[in-house]
Amino acid sequence: MIIQKELVDALFAQFGESDITRLSIREVGKLVAQIEKESGQEFIHMEMGVPGLPASPVAIAAEKEALDNGLAAQYPNIEGIPFAKTEIARFANLFINLEVSPLNCVPTVGGMQGSFAALLAAARTNPDKPYTLFIDPGFPVQKSQLHLMGLPFKSFDILNFRGDKLHDKLESFLKEGNVCSICYSSPNNPSWFCFSESELKTIGELATKYDVIVIEDLAYFAMDFRQHYGTPAVAPFQPTVAHYTDNYILLLSASKIFSYAGQRIGMMITSEKLRTRRYPNLKNYFTSDVLGHFIPYGVLYATTAGTSHSAQYALAATLKVVNDGEIDFVKVLHAYGEKARLMKALFLKYGFYIVYNDEDRELADGFYFTIAYPNLTSGELMKEFLYYGISAISLAITGSENLNGLRACVSFVRLDQMEVLEERLKAFAEAQQ
Ligand SMILES: Cc1ncc(COP(=O)(O)O)c(C=O)c1O
User: Fold this and answer.
1) Which of 24, 215, 255 to mutate to test the pocket of ligand 1 (most atoms within 8 A of CB)?
2) With a 6 A CB cut-off, is 187 part of the ligand 1 pocket?
3) Which parts of the sequence belong to the Aminotransferase class I/classII large domain (predicted)?
4) Residue range 22-44: average pLDDT?
5) Ligand 1 mean position to 219 CA, how many Å?
6) What pLDDT is stored for residue 26 in this prediction?
7) Buried b (16+ CB within 10 A) or exposed e, 119-129
8) Per-residue pLDDT, 433
9) d(CA 247, CA 279)
10) Which residues on adjacent β-strands are paired with residue 45?
């Protein structure tokens, strides 16, 4: 151990929660900061999913210019400024190979607001279909959003339902006829698995068959580095359910791909079919029953009244250079993959195993991976790690049914910390003997 057990235990006790796996990501961050302060030991921080790279300089320059031009004084258009809408549509065309127009593209206050609006709108489309179905493990805040709105959800853990097994599992939920939307992220937070084309096809076909909206969270767009998705208009394109169904809402975020988390901007791309579709039940909540009107003028207006004007310029300017092929936005992100490769190798060397792998290929190296240690529950491992100056979050809060796993995020770990990580994992493993 490198940190006194008594110190860690006393600080943890202050949280008034005996089960460490129940702490939220932000609470773990707070606990670890306190341990660092009291012990003087720097942690290997694997708990927070924050970008570890500098923000896009193009975005910063555009944002400054927008402010200098007086835009801070003006409300932005709720549906997005034309520059942003046009560049989002071009981006979808060039990097997803998706035919959408600016009308289908709306900036949101991060992917977070995108999911809030999409989950809420979907749940109001039909009173007989109130349930969102999460394909877990997943990003815990989306479930919090539903809890806060008083909306119900169902979920299942994908671990034992990859590939051909996905069809029947998914259909068993949809057959009940009360599901309005299916929500998942791919690449997946927390496990970094990616749905294969055949799995996306299954999801898309079943969504069409059962008239369900797929809310596909692409917060980690193009970050499956096994392929290069960063060249405009050149295959391969970002895999998506949108290639297999018209019932889609895609959520993208500038937080990770452009390291722009602080300015809170994302993108919502709604299929033309859904954008123009009337759902009579929406009239119980708003003046219009058209989904593509309900989302911006009903939900976005009532929550933030649009997305920050200058951030929209930042996003639009960045997308423009990316769309014009002047910058390969994916290349700089490879730094995450490199760190994941090194870190996974260290964990495997000291007896850990990866909990979630990919279906038919080696798991990609990216932003997150999941680890477990034989015969330790996730709570035991998470706590034990604190004594060794390592922090991670439990899979228990992600809807995982696996009792042993932790999520490791690579973004905050520096390359110069790899040696320290190895020393600590070695000491940890020796203590387990
Ligand atoms: C899967 C997923 N969706 C959405 C978000 C939130 O993104 P944003 O910062 O754009 O709100 C995150 C952030 O970690 C995420 O992991």
Assistant:
1) 255
2) no
3) 55-281
4) 92
5) 6
6) 84
7) bbbbbbbbeeb
8) 84
9) 13
10) 391
Residue 291: CB atoms within 10 Å: 25
CB 81 within 8 A of CB 306: no
Distance 265 CA to ligand 1 centre (A): 10
Distance 264 CA to ligand 1 centre (A): 10
Is 266's C-beta closer than 6 angstroms to any atom of ligand 1?
Answer: yes
Which domains, ranges and CATH numbers included, belong to the chain?
5-53+331-432 (3.90.1150.100), 57-323 (3.40.640.10)
* pTM, entire model: 0.96
Q: In the predicted model, what is the mean pLDDT of residues 44-66?
A: 92
Residue nearest to atom 2 of ligand 1 (CA): 219
The Cα–Cα gap between 43 and 14 comes to 20
Using a 6 Å cutoff on CB, does residue 366 contact ligand 1? no
Confidence label for 177 from pLDDT (cuts 50, 70 and 90):
very high
Pocket test for ligand 1, best of 48, 50, 112 (most atoms within 8 A of CB): 112
Q: Is the CB of 219 under 6 A from ligand 1?
A: yes
Average pLDDT, the chain: 96
Going through 77-189 in order, the beta strands assigned E by DSSP cover 105-108, 131-136, 153-157, 179-185
Contact of 262 with 59, CB cutoff 8 Å: no
Q: Structure tokens of 175? A: 């057959």
DSSP letter (8 states) at residue 290 = B
Query: Does 189 sit in the ligand 1 pocket, CB within 6 Å?
Result: yes
Q: Whose CA is nearest to atom 7 of ligand 1?
A: 111
Quote the tokens at residue 331: 């290349």
What pLDDT shows up at residue 359? 84
pLDDT reported for residue 7: 95
pLDDT of residue 284: 97
HSE, side-chain direction, 13 A CA sphere, residue 103: 11
pLDDT class for 49, splitting at 50, 70, 90? confident
- Cβ contacts of 102 within 8 Å, gap of 6 or more: 82, 85, 86, 88, 89
220 vs 244: CA distance, rounded Å: 20
Give the tens place of pLDDT for each residue, 363-373: 999 999 999 99
CA 7 to ligand 1 center in whole angstroms: 33
